[in-house]
Each structure stands twice: as C-alpha cells, then as structure tokens.
Amino acid sequence: MANRRLLTAILSSFFFRRSTAKASRYTRSGKSMLDLLHRVAEKTRVLGVGASYSAAKDQINILVRMVRAYAKGEYRAISGKTLLRMVAVLVYFVSPLDFIPDVLPVLGMTDDIALILWLVSSISDDINRFTEWERNHASSIKIG
User: Fold this and answer.
1) What dihedral do alpha carbons 81, 52, 34, 21 form, nearest 10°?
2) What is the chain's mean pLDDT, rounded?
3) Rounded distance, CA 127 to CA 78, Å?
4) pLDDT digit string, tens, across residues 126-136
5) Where are the alpha helices (DSSP H) in the chain?
6) Burial profile 70-89: b = 16 or more Cβ within 10 angstroms, e = fewer
7) Quick check: 60 and 73 in contact, CB under 8 A?
8) Residue 68 pLDDT greater than 80, yes or no
9) Range of the structural domain that residue 132 is part of
10) CB 37 within 8 A of CB 90
11) Which stretches are annotated as coiled coil (predicted)?
C-alpha cells in the first residue's frame, strides 16, 4: 500500500512531468538517447550493494539495452508510448533533483528504484519480446 502511494506521488510529481517533457525531446534523436544512456551507466556504477540494488541494476541494464538498440535502429518493436515511458524513467533516474533527492543517503534512491521496478512490471511483455529478439540476434551473429 505504501509503495503504491509512493509510486502515485512520483508519477504525478512535477519532477516526473519534467522528465517526461525532456524524454519527448530525447526520443527525437538517437544521439541524445545514447548520451542519456551514458549518464545512466555512470549513475548505475555508483549504486549501492545489496539484493535490491542488484535487482535494480539488472532491470536498468535491460532498459538501457532496449533503448540503445532502438537508438541505433537495430530494434524498433517498441511503441512510441513505451519508448517515451522508458526514456522518461531513465531521465528521472539520472536527475539528482527528484521526488526524493538523491543526496539523501539510501532514501534518495527509493523513488528511482520504485519507478524503475514499476516500469519494468508495466512493460514486461515488451521486455520479453526484446530479450527473445536479443537471443535470436546473438545466435544469428554467431552463425553468420
């Protein structure tokens, strides 16, 4: 229940609306999306240790791979709405000033991780299709 309230507050916050507006600009340029992914990678490297951080890193890596493949034109089976959501969450993730500022030890990452887990859950079918594409794409590269 508390998680749902937190998520509702984050999604309706000024900070997430600002991230969504920025995301619409990012999605117009493959280079901009790749630059964003570089910032995501930098922030992911400094995430803490522990089971929740490890799970979050794994989910972030999937999102990064999906956006990278889209930005490079390798994988386009993502709807515009899903791409916008993914990029908005990643913009929010790299922003130090959000619903719970990242400068607060431990607590500062709570909103970021909650938002990432919500996104992954809400686009699980897209993620499954992408990971299947990745497996097929990787095996075709090895064969060919």
Assistant:
1) 40
2) 88
3) 9
4) 999 999 999 99
5) 2-11, 14-26, 30-45, 51-71, 80-94, 110-122, 124-143
6) bbeeebeebeeebbbbbbbb
7) no
8) yes
9) 2-143
10) yes
11) none
Q: CA–CA separation, 53 vs 50, rounded Å? A: 5
Q: How many residues does the chain have?
A: 144
79 close to 10: Cβ distance less than 8 angstroms: no
pLDDT tens digits along 13-67: 999 999 999 999 999 999 999 999 999 999 888 776 666 677 888 999 999 999 9
Tokens of 38: 């570089």
Query: Cα dist. 1→6, 93, 97, 110 in Å?
Result: 9, 23, 25, 15
Total of domains in the chain: 1
Q: At what angle do helices 14-26 and 2-11 cross, to 10 degrees?
A: 60
Distance CA 58, CA 50 (A): 12
